[in-house]
Each structure stands twice: as C-alpha cells, then as structure tokens.
Amino acid sequence: MKHKPHPVTGWRYRLAVASRVLAALLGGYAVAALISAALTVLLLQTGMATRPQAVVWTSLLSFALYAAAAIWVFATRSATRAWTVLCAVAAPCALLLWRWPLGAA
C-alpha cells in the first residue's frame, strides 16, 4: 500500500500557509503604508486638510487597513490570489507617490 501524505501536513499546504503569513505581514503592511501615504498626499494636494490633520487621519486609517488586509489574506481562496490583489492595490498608490513628489505637497 502506497503512503499518501495528508493534505494538511504536506509541504504544499505548509508553503501556502507560509506564503499567506508573509502576505499578511509584509504585503498588508506595504499596502497600508502606501495607501496611507497616497491619501496624505491627495488630501494635501486638494487642500482638504492641513499637513498634521492629513497625517493623523491617514495614519489612523492605516491601522484599520492593515488589519483588514491581514484578515482578507487568510479569507481569500489562494495565496496567489492574495499576492495578486495586494500588488494590484499597491501599484497605483506607488505610482501616485512616484509621480507626485512629496516636496510639491
């Protein structure tokens, strides 16, 4: 009788869990930080808030975004999908920050 590895203890499952943990920790942090920075620049450019107000509000929002991203990473169907969506969300924010220099704010 051939031994078949248990799906929960197999190396693929462990790799998927490790990928999700990294996505939640690093990807969630990157997305929260990029969204926070992009919103800060956007608030400053539109004149909707002063610099201290914009930094405080977007910093507070980043904590909620980080928690939501971490929860969503473990709730989504696959680790690949989690990384794809995190990169898709982070890319426009990074592009906005790259094109909008902070000194211009």
Spell out the blueprint of helices and strands.
Layout: H1 11-46, H2 51-75, H3 79-99
Keywords: Membrane, Transmembrane, Transmembrane helix
Protein name: Iron transporter
Transmembrane segments: 21-44, 56-75, 82-100
Average pLDDT confidence is 90
Poorly predicted residue ranges: none
Give the overall shape: elongated
Biggest sheet: strands, sense, closure?
none
Proportion of β residues? under 5%
State the separation between the terminal residues, measured CA to CA: 69 Å
Total count of strands: 0
Radius of gyration: 18 Å
User: What is the number of domains?
Assistant: 1
Percent helix range: over 70%
Listing every helix as H and every strand as E from the N terminus to the C terminus, the arrangement reads HHH
Task: Please work out how many helical segments DSSP would assign.
Answer: 3
Helix and strand composition category: mainly alpha
Keywords: Membrane, Transmembrane, Transmembrane helix
Transmembrane segments: 21-44, 56-75, 82-100
Protein name: Iron transporter
Structural summary, described in words:
There is one protein chain. This protein has 105 residues and is mainly alpha-helical. It has one domain. Helix content is 78%, strand content 0%. The chain has three helices and no strands. Helix 1 (11-46) packs parallel to helix 3 (79-99) and helix 2 runs antiparallel to helix 3 (79-99). It is elongated. The protein starts with 10 loop residues before the first helix and ends in a 6-residue tail after the last helix. The model has no long low-confidence stretch (mean pLDDT 90). The chain crosses the membrane at residues 21-44, 56-75, 82-100. This is Iron transporter. Keywords: Membrane, Transmembrane, Transmembrane helix.
